[in-house]
Amino acid sequence: MNTYQLNNKNLTLFKDQVAIPQYNRAEVKTGIVHVGIGGFHRAHQALYTDDLLHQEGNNDWGICGVALLKFDQKIYNTLKEQDGLYTLVVKELDGTLSKRIIGSMVETLFAPENPSKVIEKMASDEVKIITLTITEGGYNYNEATSEFDADNPQILQDIANPLNPITIFGYLTQALKLRKERGLDGITIQSCDNIQGNGHMTQKMLLSYVKMAEPTLVGWIENNVSFPNSMVDRITPATTQNDVEELTKTSGIDDAWPVVCEPFKQWVIEDNFVAGRPAWENVGAQFAKDVVPYEKMKLSLLNAGHSVLGILGALIGYNTIDEVVHNKNIATFLKNYMDKEVTSTLGTLEGVDLEVYKQSLIERFGNINIKDQIDRICSESSAKIPIFILPTVNTQLKNKANIKHAAFVLAAWAVYSLGKNEKGTDLNIKDALKTTLHQKAIAAQQNSTLFLEIETVFGDLRKNDVFVQAFANAYDNIVKKGVEKCVIDINQSI
Ligand code: CS2
């Protein structure tokens, strides 16, 4: 089979192999600037938007994809070479692959190369929405103080060099300042990250920054910018070299960075857009008055479930999430965690059958075609755990209810942070707090609860005797008996 590079010029050559955009990309205007063009955005929002562009009358809603960090150079170069085009490969439950080329990213920018271009784009009249996938850690939130981390050196750097920012807060502030000076309409800033109340969080963190950097802008933002909350969902593992090669071999598409994902997708959005919005509801998104309960459900069950499987699985020596959930003992442990510790913290959710939802999660985790990497799941756990697991622990403690499973997983994380699995193989730990985690993990070998001193993660949990006791017991047991034996004991004690 002939192979061609994926770009505008070659696009129609692929039409017999895969689905390609049926709309004229040249006519699509940029109505959305999206920051963070990793796999998740490209499997989710960019796909919904591509679906919408196939319907009449939506040409104002193309996406300008922004790569914010120096680290993002590679994805930027790839998408630039490919005119923003990429292949989305859905790995269906029966193992077949549904492939299509997505065309909704009609522009791409690399912030470190040209910050003012990004600021200008965000400040342009045609742009009505700025969306974000900047990861849980990108919001500069300090768990210990529950406030914006004003001491972060990057934040101080942005305050000193407002025209050459490096953080999202520096960019947004300059862009909003220009919009105000130019007398432009308001704009929506929409987080698509896995954070409880992600819109509220964005608003709170941005306003904290603006109060320091550009205080006279605060009032304008309060009156002209909206921050809808949203719940986003689609499991999107990291693309492997195999995925790239499969695409070239079977479809003749030379795409340097396709995206692979599961069939399931969900997007629940609070309808709070000051400057208009795409009719994403016409392509499967749900608009709701209050999405906070949905976010909570997803973060506490799906994302936390991932962390449970990831941390326990990494220690035992598994590589992918499906392998772990097919271990019956671990699956039972996860089910008990969901049933006995999480469910009662969620309240009632209109129109959602939680039993069905939990069952569907076990099935999604078990999808053998997805092979979601444990390394991906465990990466940046120090930013994920406070959002995915600790709210459940805190609520349960307040209600004097069970925290056994959560304490066990956190103790396992302390052991994991030593850097080796139970077979003695090195773990590939990627975490902004890696050094601190490692130091505390070593200290924990003498006294396990020293691990809980990482305040930016655990807040003041170390002061709760019930939790500390459960954590210390779990830690000792894991060291003595290994994860799986402990899991069996816990399952039997239920
Ligand atoms: C995962 C998420 O990063 C993680 O730990 O739980 O990326 C998860 O796959 C997505 O949120 C699914 O919607």
Give a nutshell description of this structure:
The chain is of the alpha/beta class and 494 residues long. It has helices at 39-43, 45-53, 73-81, 115-122, 153-160, 168-181, 198-213, 218-224, 241-251, 292-316, 321-325, 328-342, 354-366, 374-378, 381-388, 390-398, 404-416, 434-444, 455-458, 465-481, 483-493; strands spanning 4-5, 30-35, 62-67, 86-91, 97-102, 105-110, 129-132, 141-142, 147-148, 187-191, 225-226, 230-233, 253-254, 259-261, 266-270, 286-288. It has 21 helices and 16 strands.
Write the SSE topology:
Elements: E1 4-5, E2 30-35, H1 39-43, H2 45-53, E3 62-67, H3 73-81, E4 86-91, E5 97-102, E6 105-110, H4 115-122, E7 129-132, E8 141-142, E9 147-148, H5 153-160, H6 168-181, E10 187-191, H7 198-213, H8 218-224, E11 225-226, E12 230-233, H9 241-251, E13 253-254, E14 259-261, E15 266-270, E16 286-288, H10 292-316, H11 321-325, H12 328-342, H13 354-366, H14 374-378, H15 381-388, H16 390-398, H17 404-416, H18 434-444, H19 455-458, H20 465-481, H21 483-493
Parallel strand pairs: 1-13, 2-3, 2-7, 3-6, 4-14, 7-10, 10-11, 15-16
Antiparallel strand pairs: 4-5, 8-9, 12-15
Helix pairs in contact: 4-6, 6-7, 10-12, 10-15, 10-17, 12-21, 17-20, 20-21
